[in-house]
Specification:
Helix content is about 25%, strand content about 30%. Strands 3, 5, 6, 9, 10, 17 and 18 form a 7-stranded mixed beta sheet that branches. A 6-stranded parallel beta sheet has the order 13-12-11-14-15-16. Strands 2-1-4 form a 3-stranded antiparallel beta sheet, with no helix packed on it. It is built from 9 helices and 18 strands. Helix 3 crosses helix 4. The chain folds into 2 domains: about 180 residues, Medium-chain alcohol dehydrogenases, catalytic domain (Quinone Oxidoreductase, Chain A, domain 1, Alpha-Beta Complex), CATH 3.90.180; about 120 residues, NAD(P)-binding Rossmann-like Domain (Rossmann fold). It is an alpha/beta fold. Bound molecules: NADP nicotinamide-adenine-dinucleotide phosphate (NAP). Pfam families: ADH_N, ADH_zinc_N. GO terms for molecular function: oxidoreductase activity. This is NADPH:quinone reductase-like Zn-dependent oxidoreductase.
Length: about 325
């Protein structure tokens, strides 16, 4: 099959570890189902994999990708990327994401357990759907299950250009929140305002302290996130693009009874609820660009440059 895969690991130069071309279909459990991929999308996770974060030499070559929508058994479906068991599969200590243990979505076909396919409403295109399973699902769980966003509440989203961040702004707005978003780039601040957020420079003072912070930048913004959180508010962390060893002012955490919460991906039920919200609220994912799958390397280069706003989608 034609695939984009990690042929080696390169912590310093992840793009040098990427190969695009024919690869023999890897082994997967016999009772899994095969989805013909029609659209896939990239995530920062794919770059982490090429750097060897969460992916070992012994698993190579590994087909990359966590996001896909396609066709299974004549049905239009969305692929849930978390492979795990239990009521909340994200808490299964043995859970994996596609492309960590089992081949990912950047290929002609992807194989998953039958419970990991969800029927896709006709109103949502493959291109839009392919944006949802990782970044959008992560943002949804951060705001709802983990962040417990109150009705009429307020949200700060750090690093406005990323896939999770743009999703969080659109979803928080659709859920009725007042939304603030920071970015180092004036261009991204203008773009995020158009999605319904009040845009601020990174580190700027907010007009109010917020109920929930969506934190994926990590070291560079965590202190600001803590300063911007209201008494009893929640800082929900799902990523650390700028560094994972950060300093926390514990005085604020205990005096203001703040909660710092981790969050990772989401459950199949949360993905189905997100799909419903997208269909009924009429919102659509923010897409930076759509390319034919053969041009996947260019999409990786754009992701690595950090100059993207929203999702990088590939049509198969
Ligand atoms: N736990 C999970 O389930 C999960 C799921 C999805 C993603 N993630 C993680 O979440 C993070 C975000 O991923 P993503 O794909 O949405 O986007 P991304 O491409 O990592 O987003 C980058 C954003 O981070 C900001 N940023 C990067 N370096 C920075 C720095 N040194 N200082 C300040 N801001 C910086 C940039 O904001 P500006 O340029 O706008 O300032 C940029 O828009 C990644 O680390 C990813 O691995 C985790």
């Amino acid at each position: 099959m034609f695939a984009a895969y990690a042929a080696r690991i390169s912590p310093e130069d992840p793009l040098s570890a990427l190969e695009v071309g024919e690869l023999a279909a890897p082994e997967t459990p016999a009772d899994w189902v095969t989805v013909e991929v029609r659209a896939s999308a990239l995530n920062h996770h794919d770059l982490w994999s090429l750097r060897g974060v969460g992916l070992g030499e012994d698993a190579l070559p590994m087909v990359l990708g966590c996001d896909a929508a396609g066709v299974y058994d004549g049905r239009r479906v969305l692929v849930h990327s978390v492979i795990g068991e239990g009521e909340d599969e994200t808490l299964d200590p043995r859970r994996t994401l596609l492309s960590e243990k089992w081949p990912g979505t950047l290929a002609d076909t992807v194989r998953v357990p039958a419970r990991n396919v969800i029927d896709l409403p006709d109103s949502i295109s493959f291109t839009d759907a392919a944006c949802l399973p990782t970044a959008w699902l992560t943002a949804y769980r951060m705001l709802t299950t983990r962040g417990r966003l109150p009705k009429g509440g307020s949200v700060l989203v750090q690093g406005a250009g990323g896939g999770v961040a743009t999703a969080a702004v659109v979803l928080a707005h659709a859920l009725g929140a007042r939304v603030y978003a920071t970015s180092r780039s004036a261009e991204k601040r203008a773009q995020i305002e158009a999605l319904g957020a009040v845009a601020l420079e990174s580190g700027a003072r907010l007009p109010e302290r917020v109920d929930v912070v969506v934190e994926t930048v990590g070291k560079a913004t965590l202190d600001h996130s803590i300063k911007c959180t209201a008494p009893g508010g929640r800082i929900v962390v799902s990523g650390a693009t700028s560094g994972h060893l950060a300093t926390v002012d514990l005085r604020r955490v205990f005096f203001l009874q703040q909660e710092i919460l981790g969050s990772t991906m989401g459950t199949r039920d949360e993905l189905a609820a997100l799909l419903d919200l997208v269909a009924t609220a009429g919102i659509r994912p923010v897409i930076d660009s759509v390319r034919p799958f053969v041009e996947v390397r260019g999409a990786f280069e754009a992701l690595a440059s950090g100059e993207v706003f929203g999702k990088l989608v590939l049509e198969h």
